[in-house]
Each structure stands twice: as C-alpha cells, then as structure tokens.
Amino acid sequence: MSQTLFDLSGRVALVTGSTRGLGRAMAEGLAAAGARLVINGTDAARVEAAVREFTAAGHAAEGAAFDVTDEAAVVRAFETFDARGLAVDILVNNAGIQLRKPMLELSTAEWRKVIDTNLTSAFVVGREAGRRMVARGRGKVINIGSLTSELARATVAPYTVAKGGIKMLTQAMAAEWAAHGVQANAIGPGYMLTDMNQALIDNPAFDAWVKARTPAKRWGKPEELVGVAVFLASSASDYVNGQIIYVDGGMTAVL
Ligand code: NDP
Predict the structure, then answer these.
(1) Residue of the nearest CA to atom 12 in ligand 1?
(2) Residue 1 pLDDT
C-alpha cells in the first residue's frame, strides 16, 4: 500500500480543543503526517504555548484562540483564515466538556452549556468549514463522539444526548456534503487518560470498573486515536462517509 495514501502534506487542519488531551494528540499525529496545524482552545496562553511546542518539534502550526460556543468568534476566525488564504482542508470537532450530575439535580443552564459546547459547536464550526469545503469540492470533517454516542450512563445525561447527536450530525453532514467531495465521519473514543477523566482515573473503584469492563483491560492513551484520525483526514478514506469508528479497547463490542 502506498504511503502517499495517508500523506497530509500541504493540507491545513483545524483541531478544536487541541491544547491538551485527545485534541492535542490528534493534532500531533496530523502534523506528523504532514499537515499544517491550526491549534485552538479558549485559553490564549495555552494556545501560544502549544504553537511554540509544535514549531519547536519542526511542525508548521499557528494558533486561533476562540470559544467554540461563541458563534461570532467562530465566524470571525474563519473570515481571518480566508483573509490570510488559509483554507481548512481538515476539521476535527474535538472541543468538549463533561459535567457529572444526576438529571434530577441538573439545571437547564447546565444542560444547555454541555449541549452548546459538545454538539451545537460542532454544527457551527462544521457549517463554517463545510461551506468553504463544499465550494472547493473537497474536505474532511472528523467529529469526536464517545461511547455515549451509543450507550447511556447515569449522571452524564446532557453529555450522552450531545454525543448521540454527534453521531447523527455526522450522518447529516454526510447526507448533504458527500456529493461535493467532503467526507464527514466520527471517532468514538473509549475511556482515555486525559484531564477530563482525572477524577475517575484517581477513583480506585472507577479505575477497576474501566479495566474490568474493557476487553483490552486498560484505559486508552490519547495517541491511540492518531491512526484513525490520520485515516479519516487522508485520501485513504475518500469513500468513507457518515461512519463512527470506535477506538475503545472493545468496550462497545461486548456486554
Ligand atoms: P480535555 O478536557 O483534556 O481537553 C479539552 C480541550 O478542549 C482543551 O484543549 C480545552 O482548551 C478545549 N476546550 C474546552 N472547551 C472549549 C471551548 N468552549 N472552545 C474551545 N476549546 C475548548 O478533554 P479530552 O481531551 O478528554 O476530550 C476531548 C474530546 O474528546 C471531547 O469532545 C470529549 O467529549 C471527547 N471524549 C473524551 C473521552 C475521554 O475519555 N477523555 C472519551 C470520549 C470522548 P481550553 O482549556 O483552552 O479551553
């Protein structure tokens, strides 16, 4: 198989929430495959630090600090990319938050915050990128789902609803954009070692449950998403549309 199938040289990739965690690992993987990275997060200092680290590692990278829930800021960011001739070929809708609380105690504001950050943002950023990709006749959108794209779990209702929505948003994007040469797909990570899960990692009972429930008997490492991310960002996936690929150590495969 030709190496060029997975080559991302000359492509520009925007990964939302790429200062840390899964977004950072996927951004590093896309950069190693040749892509020029646009690093994003809400914390401008963290974005600048990440750009410095990417550049020091020999990768082409620049920063775009904005909040994915701020529609005006998203629109402005894409206008700035346009003005600079920066065409986003690959979008990874990764930025997300978690909020653990029983539904009976959850406020509507808390519900909306999780839905806005984890689902509506993927529509808004996806629409801005998608308009330009459809006009150019090519592009790759990778949405980040979760085990909760398939299965519910107590105390994370809005997250579950948002991630279920991510699966269907991915199919909706494929339905409208596939004919224009734009592939939209999703990745569903299992339980991964990131800041988002630190309280769970530190909880011996939860840690034991993850290890027992996962066929691979361990947590996932952020860099283990890179293979699928590069595949979905590259021409190797040009006839793959509207799919969600689980990288979960087998958790969704077994009872
Ligand atoms: P982290 O909390 O480790 O990192 C989150 C990243 O998103 C940071 O870079 C953060 O930057 C950024 N971010 C958060 N809110 C916003 C916002 N409103 N606008 C722009 N950037 C934002 O999360 P993970 O790496 O663990 O998770 C990344 C994605 O993967 C999420 O969508 C999550 O739901 C999903 N996921 C994670 C799993 C896991 O086990 N960790 C499992 C399945 C899915 P800053 O602090 O600067 O805002």
Answers:
(1) 17
(2) 55
